[in-house]
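Sample 3 of the quickstart, ligand magnesium ion:
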Amino acid sequence: MDLNAVASQFSCPGRIVAVEPIGSGNVNDTYLAVFRTPYSERRAILQKINRKIFKNPAWIIENMRVVTEHAYSVLERESKGEDRIWQLPRLIPARSGRNRYIDPAGNWWRAMTVIASATSYDRAQGPRHALEAGTVLGQFHRLVSSLDPARLRDTLPGFHVTPRYLRKYEATLKKPAAKTRLKKSPQAGRLSVFIKRRRSLAHALESALKRGELKLRLIHGDPKVNNIMIDDLTGKGTGIVDLDTVKPGLIHYDFGDALRSICNPAGEEVLQLKDVRFDLKLCEAFIEGYMSRARKFLTLQDRERLYDSIRLIAFELGLRFFQDFLAGDVYFKVRYPGHNLNRARVQFRLCQSIENQEREIRRLLARF
Ligand code: GN1
Ligand code: MG
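Result:
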């Protein structure tokens, strides 16, 4: 694929110097494109949207426009009292004037601005980093809380509805190819037992929603640590990227997803299972940052479910990876055989570490 030809379809001044892969996303293909004129340089993020997952790529692009425009207008109003300059990616239009380019093979591409002087990390760098990540997520929830959810399309129906993943997993288990994979690997066998013992856990949040104890709000959907940008110059959180899954959901999904990601200092790609643990210091720092921005809009009912959300999302992600392993790696990108199996083992180990520290985590949550 001629990446330079794709990049040149977007309205950036100058000529292309290079287009290089960037980031470690499991779904879309992401590149950094550098354009130069004799006087300046412009960098842009170029992304090929995974159409197997996002069936309607026009929707995720349009959602991104709506969310960023709304957030910009709120940030503009509030900029005076702020302790930092918040940043968000913005779509860069194609030369055709549309917000995307469709290549001759039918792939959908979009380009967006790079968050200036900021870095995202695959793993927590320490409590200060966790505090900033919490602040960023709390701020994001606040920003989108004033956006009418009806303005957004559901880009991925059923995303984060854990009982649905459980049903999908159980349907996969019945397939002969999955049975063979399960039989061949003692590790896979152990994971299936792990899941069986926790079947009822899958309903923790969705049944609270059905009973009316929790309500749907706009969420990010994927606030893992490497989607959170930290300002290189100030060390403060400056924004959150990857807005593909912004949609109505339970903020608990975001809270749990951010914590399962940032509190595992070994990172989700680690090969040594013994290094996986849920770190309470990082958890405390994240909650402090999150609550500093979000405390006001959390109800008592919301707060009562926060522990469940942490445990549940680690379980859910493990289940998603494991189901994908059994199905033959059809959803998440893999870099080696057994990659999804290993990712699942990491999340289940983390889930166990969360369960072992339930009392301490609940105590922490009650302090803020
Ligand atoms: C996927 O592609 P990426 O890294 O942004 C996934 C998330 C998972 C994450 C785990 C749309 O996100 O739900 O938590 O991998 N995104 C989608 O690393 O399924
Ligand atoms: Mg994502």
